[in-house]
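Q: Protein A?
A:
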Amino acid sequence: MIQTVKTILSYVKQYKLPSILAPLFVAFEVVVDILIPYTIASLIDKGIEQENFSAIMTYGAAMILLAVCGLIFGVLSGKYAAKASAGVACNIREAMFHNIQTFSFSNIDKFSTAGLITRMTTDVSNLQMAYQMIIRMCVRSPFMLISSLFMAFLISKRLSMVFVVVMLLLTVVLSILIALAMKRFGKVFDKFDDLNASVQENVSSIRVVKAFVREEYENRKFQKAAENVYRMFVSAEKIVASNSAVMNFAVYASMISISWIGAQLITVGELTTGQLTSLFTYVSSILMSLMMLSMIFVMLSMSVASAKRISEVLNETSDLTNPEHPDFNIPDGSVTFKDVSFSYRKDAGEPVLEHISFSVNSGETIGILGATGSAKSSLVNLISRLYDVTEGSVLVGGKDVRTYDLDTLRNDVSVVLQKNVLFSGSILENLRWGDKDASLDDCIRICKLAQAHDFISQFPNGYETYIEQGGTNVSGGQKQRLCIARALLKKPKILILDDSTSAVDTATDARIRKAFREEIPATTKFIIAQRISSIQDADRILVLDDGKISGFDTHENLLEHNEIYREVYECQTNSGGDFDEKGGAF
């Protein structure tokens, strides 16, 4: 808990001054609020009852001045509290986003996408409201409570004992309610993760949902998640709502007791009418302060749960870090795997890759073939250190990848992932992810290599055509070719295509491979494919079977000596089937 608080407070930074000014003006506002009932008592006792017009004017003017000052202090405290809380929330969101960018794939695997979204939105918003409440209400309520109680004792010690008794009883009851509410609010945010996950999955896959007419199923699924959140909130809010009933009972009970006892004291001359009037105001202030404190505790219980979830992201350190003295020079695109084994988690059972050893010369084209789940993507992810090996080592340019500066390594190892992603913006802006300084001519030349120039030219706005979020306004094959062009703009020493031509026709696939051979002969190329036709011209082909190397040789030698490769080849050439349509031979 202490570490969580330290983590959150470290992001106050440039908002320290408004964080100090807000409670300071709140304190001034409370002083004014305390003085107003006292002034009212003097107005009644020394002005109205004695028919002293001069006193009425004096105390009336004082009340107006106090009211104006209270208004000014209230506005200023609200202004600075809003500035401080919004600023702290902004700092935390920026810090979370920045830290997420440093995560390795294994770090990201610990948090679901929906969970990260909830933490950066709902949880930070809860923390923002809690921070604003802390620097305002956590100052106002205790200060108001103590000050009102002090003023009540100055007026009448006997009547003030009514406050003390009611406060003790109220404290016990509210403590029980708060404990119950905190327990329920603590479970709400996990349900929010499920709700966001349902929304995200549905929206991102809406075309599949409609194609399979699964709208009703998705509606039921979302309704279930929404009802879970509803039930949890209702359960907690019922307890919070009972605060009001308890407080109202306490206020009315106190009013009746004070009226009864106060009337007797006025009769015997121990209390004035003005003092009794001010006591009514103070009892309301005391009890309302108690109610606000109870609400603050409930809100803080919600924010504590949010703060813990936020701190988990902020304090998460990447599994992949730069060495103390990183190497910024990659000599060439040669790649060597030395007895590599890999598991996604250290405590995982069977490794995904097991005792992988092979060497690739700079400029070679390597095909990679294997059944779904044979760890093809996992293998190439180790080259650019998207993951680190569990055992053994991966060498690029003759040096262990763990000795390189991460940015240097990933700039020289260009990856077109299995799931192609384009971002909202023009085609040109998307291409320049590969090289922010690339000219239009550079982009056109690279797009011709990736067989993308022709379809881009057919768009009315050409390279300025706007790409919708996720690339929804281009086809799968067009998206793949744009992603390949973007990767080529990096001028990498190593190019990895992870099943990145699966959505293009075989003729276009062949032209892309021909362009690679002729235009980037010095670049080492790894091509993961399901179609043997896409990799049979490679210098060598790596066949993976259940995380192990089944064969690594040329197309001709594998046909002769590797049974798995031969079965796939015969299946695809005889029936035209895809890799995973061969009847489960793997």
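Q: Protein B?
A:
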Amino acid sequence: MCGFVGMFNRNSACDAEQMMTGMSAAIRHRGPDDSQYLRRDGFHIAFRRLSIIDLDTGAQPFASEDGRFIAVFNGEIYNYRDLRAPLIEEGVEFRTNSEIEVIVALYRKYGEKFIGMLRGMFAILIYDAEQKTVFAGRDYFGIKPLYYRETRDGLLFSSEMKAFLFDGEMGEFTVDPAMLQHYFTFQYVPEPHTITPGIQALEAAHYMVADEKGFRTERYFTPAFGKPSEESFEAKAEKLRKVLTESVEYHMISDVEVGTFLSSGIDSAIVTAIASRLNPGIKALTIGFDVAAYSEIDDAREIAKHLNVEHIVLKGNCEQFRDAFEKTVFHLDSPVADPSTVAIYMLAREAASHVKVMLSGEGSDELFAGYKTYRDSLGAGRFEDAPAAVKAVCRGLSHLIPNGVKGKNFLLRAGYPLEERYVGNAFLFNEKQKAAFLKCCNPNQTYTELTRPYFDEVHDRDPLIKMQYVDIGTWLKGDILVKGDRLSMGNSLEVRVPFLDKEVFAFASTLKDSDKLQNGTTKYLLRYAFKDYVDPATFMRPKLGYPVPVRVWLKNELYEWAREIISRSTADEFIDRKAALQMLEDHRSGKADNYRKLWSILVFLTWHRLYIAEADRTRERILRGELAYTQRNAWFDAQKAEEEAK
């Protein structure tokens, strides 16, 4: 919906308008419809608006009529009308139809605890001029971002990290070697950490209260899995249909047109099916590439035909993918080594030319157990009591078998406890592998430092719930939601995720393992509950997740491009260029399948160039608008013209 940067400064005489203006320019893509700056005492706020709800009177920052509260928020509160009604009955008078006025009224009445009443995605800042305090809060799952940095005299906030490029007190971006080492395992830097020292993410489901003495943070929600429900399977299916349909209906509240992303999988098909029943003829968008086995277009086209929705298809190729790479890395803020990010950026750019809001199926896999690796949990418990000698043999054998070869995962499960081998849905390099190319690698550091707290919180639960809980705490926040927010908002597009709703989670948290994994199938109850909404092929189709042919291209079309990025890098204090180039040669020759590992290096080196080596040039490009979305690339227009000609 929007973006903001803010400052809470104990020195009320501080003049920060110039810095706020630069920081605001860095996130103009989040809100091209309006820009406002406001200062009250030591509180400064610059706001960028993407108009979605209450187009005429919903401008921000919002000031209460008595002048006590100044507030901004980014996101959507889907139940704000429900929360507004009882306040009106109590005599509260509203000047607008906006969510932000309801937020301020709730904060006035309930204080900090109001945040647990909200249903939606949000990042909020509220300044109380009477108490001289700032409240900052973030939604339950971390859908909307909020970063902060402690300054000499207070706090600096931003919707995106890139705004800190204009933070004169911080100086230049730097790299935290410890977080870089973790990046090369997880393929992102897990929150609340960032790759840059001094910049932190306010964690999902947390709020912060700051005053002239300092600040404190509180956790207001834990995605806890409750006691399994003993209801019948059919009763659960009926309840799931009801709660998810309600969530999609809430997520479609808008004063502008809403569309959906449509892949070949069950999640987006269900969301599109429900949305099309609520709004017949809704637009659905799909992307695919011109390499066999890396396109979901044909399957998505069948789904769209079955649902009778308007289907918009984007066909991409290697050149277009390469051209979108730099802007993708820029908009991600911090390195995220997921090749699908470029495809998502391209699709979001096309979507933005049709609608302002899109629905996505993200979050379903974490709540309903959709990843293939979750099936391993069914047999994980049987290895826990195996003799130590047997485990040692399995560990040794697992290291001898190459990745991707059948039997390796079985031996890993037999040789290592879940807490030592599972770090989330992605796993790039172990610590020994990192030492071969990462010059700052610390042999005393291990990736389990970041996952251990999550495992400790669910130490008495079964393996499947442990894996889901770790993914919700790491992978979902650090990969799925980062690319969903940054790459859509990088194109001035809002993406909403109906599965990541607190009521949907409340239901999903009571499911048995057999409701989620059954007959060799993931998300079993979800598939069953909506089997009548989609065609039979979609009902059982496995997840692909925006497949892109990077593995193929790095051997041919992208080989020279990748070699140039590595060879011209100035990040020699971190990456051994010779080792990285050898990795590329081994991949090209077929000696090893290194595409995901290579991609992580290419993303980091490009991020390092944009945010460190060429930071001054990046700032200039931001101010000129070169890195922000302005209009679709010429090749999008050419493709549409070609399609229309046919």
